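FAQ
Q: What does a multi-component entry look like?
A: The components come first, one per line:
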Amino acid sequence: MKRVMWGFVALVAVATLVWVSAPAVSQPKVVKIGDLGSKVGVFEGYGKYQTWGIQMAVEELNAKGGVLGHKIEIVSEDDETKPAPAVRKAEKLILQDDVKLLVGAVSSGATLAVMDVTKKHKTIHWNSVSCAEFMRTTKFHKYYFSNQPDSRMQATGLAKYIVDKMGKKVYIFYTDYAMGQSDGRQFKTALEKLGGEVVGVAGAPLDTKDFSPWFGAINQSNPDVLFLAFAGTDSLRLMTQLHSFGMTKKYKLAGIDCFLLQQDLPSIAEPMEGFVQLNHFSPYNPDANMQAYNARFKKKFGTDANIAAGSYDAVLFWAAAVERAKTFDSDKVAEAHEGMCVDNTHIGRQCIRKEDHQVIMDMHLYQVKGGKNLPIARIAGSDSIGEAMVGKDPVEGFTWEIKKK
Amino acid sequence: MSRALTWRAVLVWAALAALPALPFMSKFYLLLAFDALLFGAIAMSLDLLMGYTGLVSFGHAAFFGLGAYATAVLLERGIVSLWVCLLFAVLVVGLYALVVSYFSTARRGIYFALLTLIFAEVVYTFFRYTQTFGGSDGIQGLPAPSLAPGFAIDTPLRNYYLVLVYLGLAYLVCRILVTAHFGRVLVAIRENEDRARFLGYNVQRYKMAVCMISALITGLGGALYPGRSAFATPDLMLWTVSGELIIMVMIGGLGTLVGPVIGGAFFVLLQEKVSSYVDWYFIVIGLVLIFIVLFMPRGLLGIRGLLGGRRWRATA
Amino acid sequence: MDYLVAVLLPQLLHGLVFGAALGLLALGLTVIFGLLGVMNFAHGELYMLGAYAGIAVIGLTHSFWAALVVAPLAVGAIGALTEVTTLRPLYRREPLYGLILTFGLALVFREGARQIWGGDMRRILPPFTGSTPLLGMTYPNYRLFLLAAASVLLLAIWLFFTRTRAGIVVRAAVQDAEMLDGLGVNVPRVFTLTFAGSAALAALAGLLLAPIFTVYPQMGVEMILLAFIVVILGGMGSMGGSVVAAFVIGLAQSLLTLWMNPQRVAIAIFAIMIVVLIVRPRGFFGREGVLE
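Then the predicted structure of the entire assembly, as tokens:
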């Protein structure tokens, strides 16, 4: 009996504790934006730069009076690179912190899950990092915007170069979750359409420790090009292991844009030598806009920027849309986004396409030489963006089957 | 002390029912309260096994996760009746629990713990790597289940009351079991399994029964989860989650039923609040656990009087 | 023939390499269980700490070899400290309390490492690179070294337990600690030193595997399950058993990936484990009646 009494007291005490520590009413004239991403684990690097990109944009905007007279405040949360915590944190940001903009997430799986939340609660949702293909097709909703080239854009931009300049026989090795599967599908489709031969496909789970079990199959299929769709620390491990088995010299290398961040390249320069990828930014690109942006970034954070810092643009776009709509109301702000162009993004002028809310980006093909991402060709935005397929399945009729020649 | 339902328990339950009326109970806090009560109930069902029977299960997360996936799979296909989902969850979890409990209870102590752990790992690995169930991303974007056509459990408030009913019923079941003859046999098994066997009790059957009951309560809790989260992921079944359930029971107090509910609520709330301020949250939890094991093995409420603080045996 | 060389042989070697390191890890775990009755859930974290300690030492000395000596000693010390402060009070209590306490320790160690070294993955560069042409395939030198080093260590440990007085004392303690106490041996000290030794072995395994698997706070969580399986398969408390079982599991894992989707291999391993636990819980060489 006494136990239950004490239990009740404890419960009340805890409830009071929770109540007391509830957030205070925020100051007037402040608007909050949410920064959701991987702050730990396999994609921590991307999450960190996403936060920095946002911070730089917010600082610049606040220096000019904020947005609609409101000072912008950033609330950062870690989604642990998994859909479940991502959803919970998104709910917290939207329901408790009342953010008017959510930037995130890093992992495609998390982003897709969060899209359900932002759709339900009508929150403007910008994605600057995840590149699975479903966000602007089957999962699309009107509050979603992206300035990250998704798998389809990358495939459209890179596949031709691979087939023409690197080799016809390609082995596709991908990370087995939303992003990697998406890349695998899109690249296989694109490569085969352009006359290439995909001699094998395999997927390894996210966070695989040892990739060597898959190397036997790769060697057996005898490709010209090894196409890799991994990211973060998985990539680091994979390249180290491929190199130790002599496979980085045996095959030509190509992969997705977020395979490795520029900052990780110097430590793994030799294994990565000759690696080709499509990207929208590199600190070694002589383009004036990129250099200007990189200089500002470097001054503030002491290191070169990278593609995850595209989140800078997301905030700029959102702020411009809010100013245009003269309100924070999501429907009006979403509408204001469409077709909008902003001049001072990290690569100069960019515009949002109305149909699928994708930013049309001019990009480059890069090759890693001496630990640096150097541009080797330019791909116009209109060439890579592909047609808008909102609501349509981008991989209808796709099969993983290897067609034997 | 033998009454199945003390009026104090009713009082607490009523207070919980009135909780949403408080001014600060925003949607977010309601969701938090949902989690607190849900895991509290699950911890309570684990206490049946751990505290009363002396069997430590490191695989309870699998019962929870299976219940969640059972519901998720139905919701995904448009079968939104909550009753159908619960029934299906009972079937799925029941089948799995039958297998696990049959094999695990044949062994004692640490072997029981390890068997439950490994069975749970099989389930986790299976769901994580099977694409039909979404692989490591799980099943997302689920619609809310409905109590009756037109009445969906789609708001935090409705979810809260649903879990409150669940908690109440689970508590009733546990309380009745524990105060009946069944409960005494469990304690006898805990204290000295061989002696219980010599006294003529079919120990294996009792152990299986309590294991299954605990599993089903947990599985039903899991079945309620997708209604709140709109997804089911393999992470729900990590063995570290099973560990967290054990922590909840330890915090609250072995063998008290109510203790683990509080332990569970405490754990969930602590995690939410502390992790926002401090990211070394797990060190706190680890230290709390070590502290409890060393100095307060009876948890917040503890095994008092009746159980005389006797040594809690898991081997003969 | 081509298949044999290009695919089967490397897999065989992978299995042996991994099995050897796993043997070091599992050995410590099984000795502790046999001696103290505690299934150390924090063993995976000791493995992880070994790798991080290695990073710390390499950061100071730029020598992998120095790390190979210092890191296990450091982690061994941590092990000794932990045993004296937290585990000793539990020997009189039920073994499952030890299980739960070590689970708490694991949390503290894991999060502590994350706080100190950060959550992202770190690399330890192998002390030498290059690969050797071996029977028609090329195999990385470091992995060969690992196999050799781990095997030598296992041999050394076997010699320790069978030929030295200290080793025999430990084995006696595993058999019957009370009797040993009666004979005048300082049993608590034996416990502490053995625990420290077990920690050092785990640390060594962690450091040796680090150049292949890289270092991150979660690395222990993934290994501990495998270590448990090896210990059970070999027989809880049986040292020879755990070494044999480690190689069996290592080979099973790598060979199964040839015929199954590598992602499903874990399920196969677990299935084996469940069958063993049901049919013959004492594993290969365990003693009958111990907790059955």
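Q: Is there any commentary attached?
A: Sometimes. For this entry: Residues 203-229 of chain B form the longest helix (27 residues).
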